Amino acid sequence: MSSNRFHLAIEAGDLKKTVDWYKDVLGCEIDMAEEGKWQDINFWGNELTLHASEPRSSKGNERNRHKVDMGEVCVPHFGVHLSMDAYKQVKANVVASNGFLDDPYIRFEGTAYQQETFFVEDPNFNVLEIKHMVSDRN
Q: Which DSSP letter does residue 64 get?
């Protein structure tokens, strides 16, 4: 059994504010919704459901970070692999909005896993990794 779509549901805090961020900054399209309760987002072919919740007032305690080649990444996080054109567009949108949690950098340089990656936070402090893989390993 296999599937080529992934579904993830997360707390969004202020639903309108968070939906607008996914549309305006990341360029995602909205899908079905239950007004004021949840909103499905087309997250590059995957289904991300943003659920209205009590907005987080801060990141909480210091983020848990794990060492990964040339950096310490926040865990938990979720993300997406994009084409270079889509990656550049999202990166420019992030620069024009609230900026990066972790600035773009190259990981696993010189290997089949080489990637440029950056981390951002949505308005409810969920952490996302946006990356472009140099080679297609599929």
A: P
